[in-house]
Amino acid sequence: MKVETSRFGEIQVNESSVIKMHRGPIGFEDHTSFVVVEHRPDTEFRWFQSTQEATLAFVVVDPSKFFNEYEITISDADAEKLNLKDEADANAFVIVTIPGSGQEITANLAAPLIINTKEMTAMQVILPDSQYPVRHPLVAVNETFGQETEKITVKAA
């Protein structure tokens, strides 16, 4: 399948890698089809690229690469919406904001993207009573990058 992007031009993706969302990310609810695109092989940054709109892409990272203590617990209702039966089938990304200056890069830890990798469905989950901020500094905590960290586990409540 061909996907038009504003950053990489036309890219070829396997249809089995297309992620379907019941409702798109916050503020973009009508956009429900995405692929994860590698930015460069030497970085942890990825693009959550819309297959419907070439200019719509979010910079995302696997939070386990940056945040050792980050734990995601989703409601049973959200796990059911994702048809998530096994925690091992869940993968998480957090959306990163990179200002024009490139400094003060932040990650939205309060609303991660949860992907059911078995069914290739996803949703952005707003963590209830989140102890995590919407804008958590990424660069400051990046000191732990490179150390062995456990994969983030996604648990149903």
Topology, pairings included?
Elements lengths: L1 E4 L3 E4 L6 E3 L11 E6 L7 E5 L6 E5 L10 E3 L1 H6 L8 E8 L8 E2 L5 E4 L4 E4 L11 E2 L16 E3 L1
Parallel strand pairs: 3-11, 7-13
Antiparallel strand pairs: 1-2, 3-4, 4-5, 5-6, 6-8, 8-9, 8-10, 9-12, 10-11
Classified in CATH, the superfamily is BH3618-like
Total discrete domains: 1
Helix content: under 10%
Strand-and-helix sequence, N→C? Answer: EEEEEEEHEEEEEE
- From the 3D coordinates, which CATH architecture would you assign? Roll
Would you tell me the structural class of the helices and strands? mainly beta
- The average pLDDT score comes to 87
Q: Output the CATH class name.
A: Mainly Beta
Distance between the termini: 37 Å
The portion of residues forming beta strands comes to 25-35%
Oligomeric status of the shown chains? Answer: single chain
Task: Estimate the global geometry from the Cα principal axes.
Answer: globular
Computed over alpha carbons, the radius of gyration is 15 Å
Largest sheet: 7 strands, mixed, barrel
Number of strands: 13
Count the helices. How many?
1
Strand order of the largest sheet: 3-4-5-6-8-10-11
